[in-house]
């Protein structure tokens, strides 16, 4: 993710920009929708034949292409191929809103029946996707909805992951890695981004409510992963005896690893989210990474494509479809990579896992 560089490090307080819950939080969609399992969305043989005979096309308008989004894209492409829908365009906005708007305008020249996309900035995204909506394009969004768009009228659905499940699994993995007791640092995404906010909140809630012998002794907000090293240095300077650190995704986790290595600290355990080759290698070599939590990225893409096809058939689609999450450790990294990404891990990871 590429976000504005701004971070704050704060001690544990009752009031914090991170989420805190008296009751167990639940995953909700961008507009508060209850989640529906992605596996519940199906197409009959007759549906598939109707779609195949329709001559439909699709465009994939991505926020940014990297390991996770490439897996989502591949899932969409494979499902579109199964349904006889040609993918006529794919773009990468480099996490730039203006570029994403230009990308939508560019792919519209190909007259796609469907656009699958992850909106970068929901509050302004109406101007990005309005031209497609007005042209009757079937819109399916990943993770974020467009503010001002109505489900079932302006777009088909939002596909994401079970966000509480992701944060909860990260907390369980870190707790197990430090023996169920100790001091941890909590690095959260300090921005209005519902996906990471919910994951972070689930981690915090789980530690505070299910592990009474674990204390979050420092909370550090992060908006730009480029600042992760500075944040980690500050956390460890104030609390050199940290047993564990949570990071909101893999890129900042690598910054934390860098600091731990500089300090010759092989004791503090780290958990993070989203599969990443350097993080996996550290975990497999007995380093600081204790576990990586991932969603079923490939299935997000499959579900998005299937939902778009259902929309073309005027079938009702629930507003917020979610896939499952999984915890990946040194004992299941190859299988976990396949479950999440639907492909083998990099050769370096496979070799280290043997």
UniProtKB/TrEMBL annotation:
Residues 67-310 form the Periplasmic binding protein domain. This is Ribose transport system substrate-binding protein. It comes from the Bacteria. Keywords: Signal. GO terms for cellular component: cell envelope. It is found in: Cell envelope. It comes from Nitratireductor aquibiodomus. Residues 1-20 form the signal peptide. Belongs to the bacterial solute-binding protein 2 family.
């Amino acid at each position: 993710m590429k976000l504005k560089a701004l971070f704050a490090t704060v001690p544990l307080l009752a009031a914090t920009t991170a989420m805190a819950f008296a009751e167990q939080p639940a995953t909700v969609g961008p507009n508060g929708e209850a989640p529906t399992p992605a596996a519940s969305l199906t197409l009959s043989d007759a549906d598939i034949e109707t779609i195949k005979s329709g001559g439909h096309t699709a465009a994939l308008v991505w926020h940014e292409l990297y390991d996770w989004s490439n897996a989502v894209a591949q899932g969409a492409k494979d499902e579109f191929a199964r349904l006889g829908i040609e993918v006529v365009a794919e773009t990468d906005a480099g996490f730039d809103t203006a570029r994403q708007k230009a990308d939508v305008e560019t792919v519209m020249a190909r007259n796609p029946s469907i656009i699958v996309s992850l909106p970068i900035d929901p509050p302004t995204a109406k101007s990005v996707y309005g031209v497609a909506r007005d042209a009757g394009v079937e819109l399916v969004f990943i993770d974020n909805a467009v503010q001002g768009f109505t489900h079932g009228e302006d777009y088909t659905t939002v596909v994401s992951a079970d966000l509480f499940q992701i944060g909860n699994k990260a907390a369980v993995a870190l707790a197990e890695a430090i023996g169920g007791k100790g001091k941890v640092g909590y690095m959260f995404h300090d921005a209005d981004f519902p996906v990471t906010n919910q994951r972070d909140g689930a981690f915090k809630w789980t530690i505070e409510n299910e592990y009474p012998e674990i204390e979050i002794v420092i909370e550090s907000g992060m908006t730009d992963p480029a600042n992760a090293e500075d944040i980690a240095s500050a956390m460890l300077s104030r609390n050199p005896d940290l047993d564990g650190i949570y990071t909101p995704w893999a890129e900042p986790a690598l910054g934390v690893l860098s600091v731990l290595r500089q300090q010759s600290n092989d004791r503090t355990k780290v958990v993070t989210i989203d599969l990443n080759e350097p993080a996996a290698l550290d975990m497999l070599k007995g380093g600081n990474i204790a576990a990586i939590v991932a969603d079923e990225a490939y299935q997000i893409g499959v579900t998005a494509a299937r939902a778009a096809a259902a929309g073309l058939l005027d079938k009702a689609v629930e507003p917020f479809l979610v896939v499952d999450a999984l915890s990946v450790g040194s004992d299941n990294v190859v299988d976990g990579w396949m479950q999440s990404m639907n492909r083998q891990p990099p050769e370096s990871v496979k070799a280290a896992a043997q």
